[in-house]
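seq:
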Amino acid sequence: MRRRPAQSSGIFRGLSRTALLILLLSHRCHAALNVADGFNITATEVHVGQGTWNPAWTLLVNYSPALQPVVNVSIGGQWLQLVFDASSAYAVVFMKEFATCQPPSLPSCYSYKEAEKHGGFHVCSENNDPKVICDTRPNDRWSCTSFLSNVVNTTPHTDVLMIDGLEYRQRGIEGLDTMMMELSGPTRHIFSWSAVPVRLLTDNLTAVTPGPMNLSLNLFEGVDGILGGSGPTLSCRNTTLWHLLLQRLNATRGWGGFAIAAMGPLCFGNY
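struct:
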């Protein structure tokens, strides 16, 4: 099975043309924050020109030690820290059983055995069909309606992710799992979905660069995977977690909708 490299795209790629999505980078923060867990916003004011906007829903983006944006996502009943990547579409997890988290002893690393206990985890049968191609063309969508019995006897495949000019190789398998995301709004609310596409990496995510140096940046150290911020047009699956979130929030209704609050050092430094 072969895959096309994931195309680099903006955060709006694959979304509805009318979807409102505001990325707040180093904005002026007026929020009651619980720094211990990093996910307790009770009010955020966003200054737009001379006015102030209070978004109905806010997704807090924190930062890893490598300064990568991370969001809190539950997959298979396990709360994970996933790097938010606007150029890709997949929800990707590093697996504890395959030691693909860095370090391998990372306590929050995703376990497919734990996911199996929750009953919503399935491995797509297309993984073992060499005629099936995971591609972004409209006719190359995996239905994933039949499943394999386990992860161990599943054939992994290689995909490519481009980040800041570096080519990262993802070797893993395609599956389905239950997912949840927590947002702040009128109240803190957890949105949940079943049978959401997920990619499970069986090998370490490493950067491949040309030349003798062959440097591999430790960008993903201390995190549990990747949350792609694009829609299904950049995926061989029928939907993506990000697409499902925007559908649930009905983000096409204008200025009352959804904001991403990137809470960097300029925000947290005063708390």
